[in-house]
Amino acid sequence: MEKIEKKEKRFGLVGRDISYSFSRGYFSEKFTKLGLSDHNYENFDLANISEFKALTQENNLSGLNVTIPYKELVIPYLDELDETAKKIGAVNTIRFKKDKLIGYNTDAYGFKKSLSAHLKKKHKKALILGTGGASKAIAYVFEVLDIPFQFVSRNPEVKQLSYKDLDKKLIKEHQIIVNCSPVGTHPNIHEKPDIPYQYLTKDHLLFDLIYNPSKTAFLKEGETQKTIIENGLAMLEFQAEKSWKIWGS
Question: Which of 32, 135, 153, 244 could form a disulfide with 180 if both were Cys (CB 3.0 to 4.6 A apart)?
């Protein structure tokens, strides 16, 4: 009897300059542990989001993750958004369902689950550093948790703060500070967001979405001030598992 080969299931990460990617290593290891020899996870490094359509048409894909800088730019290329992704306005997971591409956001799930391990009653307000696609998921979680927050940007829009606005009073009032910017990512490990770290206390919680390096210059500054610190690794693991469920595996 003729042997029927299993059809390869291809997954991957869409982004730009993503050789550092957590996702490829995570899912490759997962597939090996589960004995899924017909599953493969790749990096799709796109110079421009305009390349996305050809990627999805020519590569027989089963599911994608999306990272910087395409979490918002990818939306016009999708057929549907689930309710959470629609509310957030950013997508980091795409399901291929027959002829449709459906966008989801698992960043919010991952952040909420990771944050909950450290959240205390004293953590009443938050600052979100950065205004990209990832920051929208973080803002959504704070809305769900009923924690007031403010965005901090190098180019602030209406109702946003600039880094120059941050003073002792604002830092004291906002006990949670989340870095959603890429500042401090490998190889630029000595860079950090420009905030007045000297006003941090043990009552603050510093959360960095960056996971490489595991302890960024941002987190090291917080540690010096005896704040609670957390990097983005647990969040990434939680969101990756959520993506896996969405893909229907």
Answer: 135
